[in-house]
Design goal:
The chain is mostly helical. Helices cover about 55% and strands about 5% of the residues. InterPro entries: Ac_transferase_dom_sf, Fungal_FAS.
């Protein structure tokens, strides 16, 4: 029996188990989404509905809706990134979909995010892959990158980012280097607006920007291996050089 989610561009429907139909239909009837309806996309609407279900639904209802989501958008055979790439979504819409998926994936154990092999790594037996770790100190863009990744992937990286922020802040008090950090190195408090953000001159200084650019790269690496469902060692084995 289909559950209908009524939107101005037509009816988005999906199949749900009969014993959960009434519960999920109630969630659908209460669903109010905030999106430019002239550009509404089924994937975006369903992602918003996933958020709505997580806030208001039971665990069984949420599981059922997640399974319907994976079937409707063929997430079982391709990654969520592939599903997004086949749709004309802007950056904000893409981020909304990813945030919904990874938030639910963390709570409901990978029903939403399968682990298909990355095409690049499948070709690693025919081409050599190299990882280059560099940096771009002298800019404050690393703050925006960390904010962006935490907004989307917080269930995957939030604990690590907080621990590394504490680690860097502690190290900045070392008596050998503390004079280089008169305003500290409390990245987590900066991006959460818990304390005032230092001026740009301080943020682009080498003692501050170099370790934080490194943190950005470590977080990006963590996102990569966690979304692929492999260990750091397995990821490293895909590369010929580091």
């Amino acid at each position: 029996m289909p559950v209908l989610l009524k939107i101005n561009l037509g009816n988005l429907s999906f199949l749900i188990a009969r014993n959960l139909h009434a519960v999920v239909q109630d969630l659908a009837d209460l669903f109010v989404y905030k999106v430019d309806q002239s550009r509404a996309d089924d994937l975006v609407v369903f992602a918003l509905f996933l958020q709505h279900c997580q806030a208001h639904g039971s665990a069984k209802a949420i599981q059922a809706v997640i399974e319907a989501f994976t079937k409707m958008f063929d997430i079982g055979n391709r990654s969520i990134y592939a599903a997004i790439s086949h749709r004309d979504l802007d950056e904000e819409q893409s981020q909304l979909v990813l945030k919904s998926v990874f938030l639910l994936n963390s709570a409901y154990q990978a029903i939403v995010v399968p682990k298909p092999a990355a095409a690049l790594f499948e070709a690693s037996n025919r081409a050599s892959l190299f990882a280059v770790f560099g940096g771009n100190p002298g800019t404050t863009s690393y703050l925006d990158k960390i904010k962006w990744m935490l907004d989307i992937y917080k269930p995957l990286i939030g604990e690590y980012a907080a621990q590394m922020s504490d680690f860097l802040q502690t190290k900045s008090h070392d008596k050998r280097i503390f004079r280089a950090y008169p305003k500290g190195l409390c990245i987590y408090k900066w991006i959460n607006n818990d304390v005032a953000l230092p001026d740009n001159k301080y943020l682009v200084s080498s003692p501050v920007s170099i370790p934080l650019v490194g943190l950005v790269q470590l977080i990006q690496l963590m996102v990569l291996y966690k979304t692929l469902g492999i260990s750091p060692g397995e990821l490293a084995s895909k590369f010929s050089g580091k």
